[in-house]
Design goal:
Elements lengths: L2 H22 L1 H25 L10 H21 L1 H9 L1 H6 L5 H29 L11 H27 L5 H17 L12 H8 L2 H14 L9 H21 L6
Length: 264
């Protein structure tokens, strides 16, 4: 068997292993899906009915919130999925993987596939749920097929970016508790400055500037264009969003693969 075939087989084995562990963890599976759906229902309906926001389409804050909830689901999933790195390190399995004939980059790539797959499936499950709820009025402004493909590409690119970031941090932080703390300190401010919970168009200049240097802004913008918007006015644009999100995903993921994991 060729070296390439062996590497692909190793990736598949690592992916299958992490997927089995995820499916066996009912608490992780339920909490990472139920919390975003609960937030969509409670916060979305509460603001739509209680505050009657005028800056979103027809005051329908529930539909406006869908792209942001999809991004938030990917964030939660990337944080939860990273736990397998520490579990493998603490149990000694990571050392076993690293002394195999495969390079550390190949091992990390296989581990990353699990996080990317789990995060993408969960984010798309939220989209599927939102699409099936009659009260949520998704616009699909490019047509259902093209808009869905754009949403799929956005979700995949976002999870690649987050997986790379998680791999960079996990290779430097020794404890799972420290990792989750740093991820929360980094990712939650990015989520709130991304346009996930309020439109960016009418923000003060300094706040809009912070949003423009936030990589999550471009994922939220793409999903809003694909699912929510009825035009491109007030948005950054598909070309800009794809260029920034794709470039950052490639850079962070490549950087993560070059970081040798700590095994001590």
């Amino acid at each position: 068997m060729s070296g390439a075939a062996l590497t692909v087989g190793a990736w598949g084995a690592l992916l299958a292993r992490d997927l089995r562990a995820f499916l066996r963890s009912r608490s992780q599976l339920s909490s990472s899906l139920l919390f975003p759906l609960m937030l969509l229902a409670v916060v979305g309906v509460g603001i739509s009915e209680g505050l009657e926001p005028s800056r979103v389409r027809d005051g329908d804050y529930v539909t406006f919130l869908v792209p942001g909830i999809i991004v938030m689901t990917a964030l939660f999933s990337s944080t939860f999925s990273s736990a397998s790195f520490y579990q493998d390190r603490d149990s000694g399995m990571l050392k076993v993987f690293l002394v195999s004939p495969h390079s550390p980059a190949a091992i990390l790539f296989g581990k990353s596939l699990g996080a990317i797959t789990i995060g993408s499936v969960q984010a798309l499950a939220v989209l599927a749920f939102a699409s099936a709820v009659p009260a949520i009025d998704l616009a699909w402004q490019y047509g259902v097929g093209p808009s869905l493909l754009l949403a799929l590409a956005t979700v995949l690119g976002l999870n690649v970016l987050l997986s790379g970031l998680a791999q960079v941090l996990a290779s430097r932080i020794r404890t799972m508790q420290g990792f989750h703390l740093v991820m929360n300190l980094v990712l939650f401010p990015l989520l709130f400055f991304s346009g996930a919970f309020f439109p960016l168009a009418d923000l003060p200049g300094w706040l809009y500037g912070l949003a423009l240097v936030n990589p999550l802004t471009y994922a939220v913008d793409l999903l809003q264009l694909a699912l929510y918007a009825e035009g491109e006015s007030g948005y950054l644009g598909i070309g800009v969003d794809l260029a920034v999100l794709g470039s950052l995903a490639a850079v962070l993921f490549g950087w993560g693969l070059r970081r040798h994991p700590m095994v001590d």
